[in-house]
Amino acid sequence: MRAAWYEKQGPAREVLTVGEMPDPIPGAGEVRIHIAASGVNPGDIKKREDMFGYGMAYPRVIPHSDGAGQIDQIGKGVSAEWIGRSVWCYGAQSYRPFGTAAELTVVPVDQVVPLPENVSAAQGACLGIPGITAHRAVHVGGSVSGKTVLVQGAAGSVGLCAVQLARRAGARVIGTVRLAADEETARKAGAHAAVINDRELTSRLKAIAPEGFDHIVEVAFAANLDADLELLNMGGSIATYATDSARPVIPFWQLVFKNIRLFFLGSDDFPKQAKIAATVDLNAALEAGWPGFEIAERIPLSEIVRAHELSEHPARSGRIVVTL
């Protein structure tokens, strides 16, 4: 099969190779997917760069955890009904060496999801990490039905999904965005209102939601914590999946006095049932007409270096997808 891989960590142009590898064979409980599209996520970039200093867990890594395509082989114990089905997958390179940046990938059958008929492979390839993270971020603190939810970074990949999933779960959803051009993006995802994140953010949010917020989905934990604390109601919660500072200062007593709950979310290690619940709700949203992500670029596997560089330094908004 044709695949992209790296055997050392570093800049994409220095470490990524495209070539031939043996076709993988699915083991017990696994399926093999003929990949049509492979999603590029920030986590894939961070692993390749060794941003967190964990080093190479495997001597050779095929990057990318998310992808979509058609199942062409199954392992022992897997129903034959999966053969030939169009699916999207997640976690292909989570605790495993070989991800979706290849013509063929093997994953456990419980990490594949039927691709709705109205959804393209490119869309399916973008769902895994951001969609499952967003679902957990919305629901980890309990039901949001009838609650007021703030999604910080509502025009980002996780933010868009969080807005849609919170809206479908019955919440009043307010999103923050960096640019005026992103306000419409957040509203199309389902936000009841969208606000630019600037010096007037807190006062504008209080005007829009004078009753306060019950739950916040947070993309920049350190930068926004003080504002989040001011906006949250007693017993409110923050679910955060990213931060602008690796060692944020925590306003301990203010959090204590408001009985604020903090949830720190790492998508690789969510409970299995939480991941499955996320896939069900994501598919339901897509089947109901949610358009999903804007695809900025579709780039062939042979140009995966360019795909990674565009993901690091976007030329325009939208997701980068590697096609096969």
Number of helices: 11
* Rg calc: 20 Å
Helix content: 25-40%
- N- to C-terminal separation? 11 Å
The CATH architecture category of the largest domain equals Alpha-Beta Complex
Order of helices and strands: EHEEHEEEEHHEHEHEHEHEHEHEHE
Q: Within the CATH hierarchy, at the fold level, what is the topology of the largest domain? A: Quinone Oxidoreductase, Chain A, domain 1
| Overall number of domains | 2
Report the count of strand segments.
15
What structural class do you assign from the helix and strand content?
alpha/beta
Strand content: 25-35%
Give the overall silhouette. Answer: globular
CATH superfamily of the largest domain: Medium-chain alcohol dehydrogenases, catalytic domain
Q: Could you give a short account of the major beta sheet? A: 7 strands, mixed
Low-confidence stretches: none
CATH class descriptor of the largest domain: Alpha Beta
Average pLDDT for all residues: 97
Quaternary form: single chain
